[in-house]
Amino acid sequence: MGDEPEGRLRADARRNRDRLLAAAKAWFATHGPEAPAEEIARAAGVSPGTLYRHFADREALIQAVTLDNLDNALAETRAALAEESSAWNALVRILNQSQELRLSIRLLMAYPAVGEIVKRERDTAHLRHAMIEVLDEVVRRAQAEGTLRTDVGTGDLAVMFSLLAHPLPIMHTEMARHATARCTALLLESLRAGAGAHLPGHPLTPADIGA
Fold first, then answer.
1. Using CA atoms, how far apart are residues 16 and 10, in angstroms rounded to an integer?
2. Which of 107-116, 174-183, 187-196 has the lowest average pLDDT?
3. 58-209 adopts what CATH topology?
4. Whole-angstrom Cα distance, residue 130 to residue 127?
């Protein structure tokens, strides 16, 4: 019984951290990593002091969000590749469902400072490399089975994920979801083997886009 208050405090701290991460993800998706710390704390229902007890500075918060996103996205992508009947179906599932991956790629591509943090820190760098490897595997398998056009690369997919991660300037949430679903379907059709005209330049790699 004597350990109960301490255990409750630890549970409260974990809940606060989870709420801060969720709020930071939502703000980063809309405003980028420059979102005010006070607004993130307010959205999480905690004080700015609580935010800084968990994350010493903005860099620590960005690192935590990116680490959590990449960890979840990697699990989602591996599950899609293992569970779907084809690599194409895995790609469709990933492109439609992985909000975590979309935000991670957007942060890495659009904000060089985030990329530098990820490359510098061992945990996030490891997840970044693992994520690139599994996306490479999706591309290789889909092209080998003849469903994905051969003139696209993993970097091209990353750019598509980044574009889909940007919030649409549509106030009505349901219409924004509808528009995003249509855009995703159009992008997928453009990726099918035999679709469309020849693409300019070479297939993009992760190195080409700094991912």
1. 10
2. 107-116
3. Tetracycline Repressor; domain 2 (1.10.357)
4. 5
